Amino acid sequence: MSKQDLIDWIQRHEFRFTDMAQQIWDHPQVAYEETFASQLQMATLKEVGFKVTTDVGGVSTAFIAEYGIGSPIIGILGEYDALPGLSQAVNAVREEIIQSGPGHGCGHNLLGTAGVEAVIALKEIMEQEGIQGTIRYYGCPAEEVLSGKTFMARAGVFDDLDCALTWHPGTANFVVNMKMQAMVSIKFHFSGITAHAAGAPHAGRSALDAVELMNIGANYLREHTLDGTRIHYVITNGGLAPNIVPDKASVWYYLRASSKGEVEAMLQRVHKIAEGAALMTETQVQHEILAFAYDTLPNDVLNDLMFENMKITGSPLFTEREQEFAQELVDTVDSTIVESSRKLFGNTPDELLPPGYYNLPQLRGTTMGGSTDVGDVSWIVPTGQVMTTCAPVGVQAHSWQATASYGSSIGYKGMHFAAKTMALTAYDLLLNPTFIEQARNEFMINTEGQRYKPGIPDYVQPPAAKKPQNSSSNLVRM
After folding, report:
1. How large is the C-alpha radius of gyration of the chain?
2. pTM for the structure as a whole
3. Positive or negative torsion for Cα 147, 58, 20, 137
4. Distance of CA 241 to the CA centre of its chain
5. Is the separation of the CB atoms in 89 and 182 below 8 Å?
6. Predicted confidence (pLDDT) at residue 1 exceeds the cutoff of 80
7. Is 335 buried (19+), middle (13-18) or exposed (0-12) by CB count in 10 A?
8. Among 309, 320, 324, 366, which residue has the fewest nearby CB atoms (within 10 Å)?
9. What would you measure as the largest C-alpha separation in the chain, in angstroms?
């Protein structure tokens, strides 16, 4: 069977995976609650002969599906969690399906399904050609909160891989050869003393005052961090009533930087700010780490191979109606944002659904603002990643416009293109060990021998998992 035969197999079965992606889009579930998507994908993979392992890393919605024997072992990463508050019909006007409900504004209904599509196609070719090796699909929950893969990695499930491949819905067909930022997600909980806010304010110790003083300190810290770092937060608990001095208050921080080491250095300073706020207000503070994702480590060998297979596959063709829908969506986005998005790839105004392929060497060594727990995997094993056109240029991820596009035929065409790209690349890796050797050599140079150590401490358990009997809380006293 040639690569064209593999492409043809996927094209003949696209309807099956379009239906899967549509079902997951119709049943959006947020991080650690993705029972519908995980069960649907597991059932599909079991039906065609994959061995499925569940509850991976102590996460009830995480699983691994495996086929084959021996080396090489190639992994394809999938995700399927939705975002809160992004419910939206496939429409160019804001139309919630469920008021304030979740929606696939990051396209994970497509992301995971393309992985399932790719590994099932690979199984077919491995059986027909008697190809030696092992393929795995990793059903990864909770990417949107940047911790699903970290818990899985902590369990060691990526350690024996030779290479990993993944993708993400985007607004162009390109190789992700820039880095994404490392990030820690951490909550600070302050405890004080209640009192009558008017009758006896001197008797109270305000936890809310501590939160606000901490935020002021963090905002001053921004001036003294490296370029490109990010500090953002929300107050999750500010008290119960204005006439009661709050004895409980909490703030949730995301800290991002271009490397895990830089995030750790910034976190140390934020801890000191929290301690200072507690000291000033005579309150106590505890912290709770929710996620700690590594920066991504691009692998040029794998990315270049994926790029060549993009060109072999051929980008999808979009209909006149799809082009019209793309324009309708773009018309709802700020024109300055659309223009900025166009500049990245040099698109003309009429290229809302770019047909070309991009492998931009000038982006190597740069860091984009977002984060992903794919970073953890990329520090364990050589990892390749692409994005494909699933939404028009200018539409931003985590928006209602993105949800609409990722539930449309535009999104499904980009998904099938990604599945073909990953399947062809994995086919090359199974047949040509030279690619794996080259990718591993690059990985060893880039990591400089640094071994992966999970950023999430051992005492922190997945939200959906049972906590160990000797650990009653994830809180750490400061």
Report:
1. 23
2. 0.93
3. positive
4. 37
5. no
6. no
7. exposed
8. 320
9. 83
Sheet of strand 133-140: strand arrangement: 51-54, 63-69, 133-140, 73-79, 163-170, 383-389, 173-175, 357-358
Given a contact cutoff of 8 angstroms between Cβ atoms, the answer to whether 402 and 94 are in contact is no
Mean pLDDT of the chain: 94
| CA distances, 57 to each of 52, 145, 187, 477 (Å) | 14, 16, 23, 26
User: What pLDDT, in 10s, does the model give residues 224-233?
Assistant: 999 999 999 9
DSSP code of 9?
A: H
Tally Cβ neighbours within 10 Å of residue 313: 24
Least confident of 47-56, 272-281, 442-451: 442-451
Q: Is the CB of residue 102 less than 8 Å from the CB of residue 27?
A: no
The confidence score (pLDDT) of residue 466 equals: 41
pLDDT of residue 96 exceeding 80: yes
Q: What pLDDT band is residue 464 in, cutting at 50, 70 and 90?
A: low
Q: Are 465 and 59 in contact (CB under 8 A)?
A: yes
315, 435, 449, 314: which is closest to 384 by C-alpha? 435
User: What class, spelled out in words, does domain 184-292 have in CATH?
Assistant: alpha beta
Question: How far is CA 356 from its chain centroid?
Answer: 25
- What pLDDT is stored for residue 477 in this prediction? 38
Asked if 3-180+295-447 and 184-292 have one fold, the answer is no
Summarised one tens digit per residue, pLDDT across range 292-324 is: 999 999 999 999 999 999 999 998 999 999 999
| pLDDT(468) > 70 | no
- Are 371 and 455 within 8 A, CB to CB? no
Nearest-angstrom CA–CA distance, 372 and 269:
23
The answer to whether 360 and 138 have CB atoms below 8 angstroms apart is no
Could you tell me which residues come within 8 angstroms of residue 369 by beta carbon, excluding any fewer than 6 positions away? 181, 228, 230, 256
Q: Which amino acid is at 159?
A: D
- Return the structure tokens found at 79: 């995700």
Question: pLDDT tens for residues 126-172?
Answer: 999 999 999 999 999 999 999 999 999 999 999 999 999 999 999 99
Are 440 and 194 in contact by the 8 Å Cβ rule? The answer is: no
Token pair in block for residue 48 = 């065609």
Question: Domain residue spans in the chain?
Answer: 3-180+295-447, 184-292
Domain 3-180+295-447 has CATH 3.40.630.10: yes
Helix (H, G, I), strand (E, B) or coil at 390: coil
Model confidence pLDDT, tens digit, residues 169-186:
999 999 999 999 999 999
